[in-house]
Amino acid sequence: MQPISPSAADYIKSAKAGIESVEYIDDLIREYLLFRGFKDTLKALEVDLQGDHDKGFNAEKIVDELLGMAIGLDADGLLEYWQYMSYRFFSHLSPKYHRTTRMFEKRLIRLFLVSAINADKREKIRQFMDKHGKALGQQGGDWIPWLGLEYVDEPSTRPEFEAHFSDDWLVSLRSALTDFIQTVFPAMAVPRIMLFDKDRREREALQNRLKICEEQLNGETKIKALELSCMSSSLVEDHIGGVAVAWSPNLKPATAELAADSIATIDQSLGVIQTNEPSSILKVSQEDVFLEHNSGINLAMFSATGALIASYDDESILKIWSPDLASTAPKLKNELDFTVNAMAWDKKHTHLLYLYDEDGYLHTLNTNTNLMSRQLLLERRHPWIQSMQASSASSTLLTVSSTKPEGTSDLSVLIWDANANKTIASKRLAPVAESHGVCAALNHNGNLAALAYNTGQVRLLDTRTLETVASISTKQKGLCSAVFSLDEDSLMVVTETGGLTQWSLRRDSQMTAESSLSMGVDGGVVSADSRLDYERVAFTPDRESIVIAPKDQCLVFNVDSAALTDTMRRHKDLVSCVDFVADRSLSASEDGTIRVARYRKV
């Protein structure tokens, strides 16, 4: 099997660890059932364990069972057990491994035939061929000589059979089959209880990162007001490394000299001493173009880590691939028999991709195994999907659908739990007059959603109840994108013509900032193909920059100053969507190309 991406490798490593500890997990369940007093359930568990066809996910025991049936001349048992293995495990593999499973099936059957010759029970071969010979003969190729094995004297001396009678061939079969089955187990979608060690490590890593970040903030930038009120200015300078105090531009002192009590008063209002330094700007350091598709691209999106890209084109071709030229991650290509209208990566389980089709089905693609499942989400009164967002804190999805493809005055909002495969909340919202577009955004824990209508109205919803908790009337037409600020005290919205405003979520929804992104349009008139939509706007994770694609080129702006900081090279046709993760962005075009840019801060 080919090497896989780091995110997929991490999942498989965790799944493998969980499978290897299945006996320990069985003991935990026994202990729990005894603690709860579920004695009948415990007895049923013991009965099931005694007849466990999976052999506790022990590949060596499974191989011993298969080889034992073949050598013991139990042809029916061998084929029945192999069929069970195919349905239980091999069906979860990518189609490219079907040839490998057929190869092992062929070898097991030939082991049975060789064992019958060695045991001088050729009537077993006759019985087997009477039942399965026709099917084997239709396969042709190297099966033809084996159909007459019963009538061959000393087949171990014939070149077409000789190798199968050697001890080395049996040893090789045992080793290869064991390795294959051990590889198959982690590729399955295992239950969450078997990934507990992975979740524990992730929590520890996040706690360590949070502790480091807090120490950096406390040690480098923040000075508590209580400490400041008890210090002289020289002590403050010592604390921040001898750098002179720079006052916030919003609170400049009237004179150059201030008494210590004035310093304390100002600091109590701010909480920290702020320096008048401009925010960093982004510059493109590297740009690559990828020719993954032969037709226009409708959707393209980074996975949560940025290790993979999912892209979907006009010919219903879905590809999963890595933008890193040196990556060994395998490419996936699926020719879908349905049309994808929305796409989202799971932010927690980075190997899962969600696809929403035109018939209202949600398809979940496991990129580790290339297997896909689907569930029906369609609400008949609201069949047109407008937006689909994945939560960063859990495997839940927010979907926003409407009664008409371009008339979004009447909306239905739904929260889908991907782990439980069920709807946990749904609500039909009160109509917004004359609305023809809507975009959605989720905060960091997925508990708050913002719906921005192109009429200028913004609704804030509690996703646990889908009740409207606040509303903002921006009085701006053509809202096309919205995102929560990094501290989540405000909401930033973008209009189709490049207007950028920020609205406080704590101070009566007041506008706190306003600017305009220059899109380089002649005469100030924005043509239809230059107007932005939510798929052609992407904020950086730190909210300091924004990438937009008004036509055939990506433009990078600094949010604070609204200054254009850099541009990407032009596509030959209109850009259909953009995305940004970590330090890179992508732009996908109707010409079938995808450009990926890396950035550096200056």
UniProtKB/TrEMBL annotation:
<dbReference type="Pfam" id="PF23138">
    <property type="entry name" value="CTLH_Armc9"/>
</dbReference>
<dbReference type="GO" id="GO:0031902">
    <property type="term" value="C:late endosome membrane"/>
</dbReference>
<dbReference type="Pfam" id="PF00400">
    <property type="entry name" value="WD40"/>
</dbReference>
<dbReference type="InterPro" id="IPR036322">
    <property type="entry name" value="WD40_repeat_dom_sf"/>
</dbReference>
<dbReference type="GO" id="GO:0051898">
    <property type="term" value="P:negative regulation of phosphatidylinositol 3-kinase/protein kinase B signal transduction"/>
</dbReference>
<dbReference type="GO" id="GO:0045022">
    <property type="term" value="P:early endosome to late endosome transport"/>
</dbReference>
<dbReference type="GO" id="GO:0141039">
    <property type="term" value="F:phosphatidylinositol 3-kinase inhibitor activity"/>
</dbReference>
<feature type="domain" description="ARMC9 CTLH-like">
    <location>
        <begin position="80"/>
        <end position="186"/>
    </location>
</feature>
<dbReference type="InterPro" id="IPR056327">
    <property type="entry name" value="ARMC9_CTLH-like_dom"/>
</dbReference>
<dbReference type="GO" id="GO:0031901">
    <property type="term" value="C:early endosome membrane"/>
</dbReference>
<comment type="similarity">
    <text>Belongs to the WD repeat WDR91 family.</text>
</comment>
<dbReference type="InterPro" id="IPR039724">
    <property type="entry name" value="WDR91"/>
</dbReference>
<protein>
    <recommendedName>
        <fullName>ARMC9 CTLH-like domain-containing protein</fullName>
    </recommendedName>
</protein>
<dbReference type="InterPro" id="IPR001680">
    <property type="entry name" value="WD40_rpt"/>
</dbReference>
<dbReference type="InterPro" id="IPR015943">
    <property type="entry name" value="WD40/YVTN_repeat-like_dom_sf"/>
</dbReference>
<keyword id="KW-0175">Coiled coil</keyword>
<feature type="coiled-coil region">
    <location>
        <begin position="196"/>
        <end position="223"/>
    </location>
</feature>
<keyword id="KW-0967">Endosome</keyword>
